[in-house]
Task: inverse folding
């Protein structure tokens, strides 16, 4: 079973602070996605990274894919209350060619106004 | 262009009853994935279907669970004789093409809002 571990599991910060969420795996993935999930809703895709070492920016969010394509990080600059939510990383396909996404354990972020 | 639709959004069943969860993929998408999210856990893959075919059901429990994606109509995830441990959020995702390591490409999966199943 592939396992993507995210850290921290819970994070509560003040508005305006910076934060970094980590996603680590023992497996190599062809690509890795980051999703955000609001309560009562499905995950919404934020970004896909496919190349080892790749960095993508989405406004105040910066995503990085590790050189070995086993880990990724999400950095948020000047967090806002609207950033509150559950952040999930997901990898796939893996080396076995599995057709599904393997999801991380999630980081629940709360930004306090 | 409507997104992935799931219904019902909430479903309450008593132990032993059947639960039917429906998923209509995005227009033009012929690949459907079902995931289950247990309370305080991440999403776990259950089954991957293409029209009229089950491609990968490695994540499906061996008993009581089945899935189909007919030529016409939505994909159906069916749970027979539900037990309390089946209480979870069930998400469907669709993509225009399937995932293939040979193509070294992960097709974007678009998720529906989920069906929250509660078994009493």
Result:
């Amino acid at each position: 079973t592939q396992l993507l571990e995210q850290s921290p599991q819970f994070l509560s910060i003040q508005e305006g602070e910076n934060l970094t969420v980590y996603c680590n795996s023992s497996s190599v993935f062809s690509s890795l996605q980051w999703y955000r999930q609001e309560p009562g809703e499905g995950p919404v895709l934020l970004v896909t990274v496919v190349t080892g070492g790749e960095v993508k920016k989405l406004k105040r969010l910066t995503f990085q894919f590790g050189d070995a394509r086993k880990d990724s990080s999400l950095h948020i600059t000047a967090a806002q209350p609207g950033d509150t939510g559950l952040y999930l990383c997901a990898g796939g396909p893996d080396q076995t060619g599995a057709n599904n996404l393997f999801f991380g354990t999630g980081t629940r972020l709360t930004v306090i106004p | 262009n409507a997104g992935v639709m799931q219904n019902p959004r909430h479903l309450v069943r008593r132990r032993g009853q059947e639960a039917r969860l429906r998923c209509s993929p995005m227009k033009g998408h012929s690949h459907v994935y079902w995931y289950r999210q247990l309370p305080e856990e991440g999403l776990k893959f259950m089954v991957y279907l293409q029209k009229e075919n089950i491609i990968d059901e490695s994540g499906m429990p061996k008993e009581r669970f089945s899935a189909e994606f007919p030529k016409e109509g939505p994909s159906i995830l069916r749970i027979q004789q539900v037990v309390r441990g089946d209480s979870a959020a069930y998400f469907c995702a669709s993509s225009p093409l399937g995932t293939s390591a040979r193509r070294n490409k992960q097709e974007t999966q678009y998720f529906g809002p989920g069906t929250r199943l509660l078994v009493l």
Observations:
- Chain A touches chain B through 30 residues (CB under 8 Å).
- Residues 36 and 87 of chain A are 5 Å apart (CA to CA).
